Amino acid sequence: MGLKPSQPNVELFNLELYGGPKDYVDFPTDNQYVVGFCALLFNAQSRGSVTLRSSNPLDNPIVGHNYISDPLDLLVLAQGCQTMNEILLKGKATKDVISGSWPRQRNHHQYTSRNDWVPYVKETVTTCSCE
To answer: What are phi and psi of 51, to 5 degrees?
Structure first.
């Protein structure tokens, strides 16, 4: 794709099973169905930290994830979400099927720009391990 090794980039994929660390509480019921997608950031520019809690090797370290602390990482993830949302809402196979956001009280399906997605990304960014 012509990317530099240090250049952040995003990959998108759909979820065959609904769920993940942020989603465990809002499973669809009563003949409701949802589709999900993930925007995965590769070559992140943000850097976290790991420090020892104590000299006891059994004590868990202190981990500062520092997700999306680099503005470029935030913009790349926000753009990935905006692109996938556009594909879902305007794509030939999905435009007549997607009826809104999940959970229902959310309205992110109405976001039309990358900047609209920035607060959502800040609120929901996580890693693939449960925290």
So the answer is: -130, 155
Nearest Cα neighbor of 78 from 51, 106, 103, 41 is 41
Predicted TM-score of the model (pTM)? 0.75
Per-residue pLDDT of 9-19, as tens digits, reads: 776 665 555 55
No. of helices (H) and no. of strands (E), the chain:
2, 4
* Radius of gyration, alpha carbons of the chain: 17
pLDDT per position as a tens digit, 64-101: 988 899 999 999 999 999 998 998 899 998 889 888 88
| Sequence-distant (≥ 6) Cβ neighbours of residue 42 within 8 angstroms | 8, 9, 10, 11
Residue type, 117: W
Write down the residue that tokens 């996938």 correspond to. 84
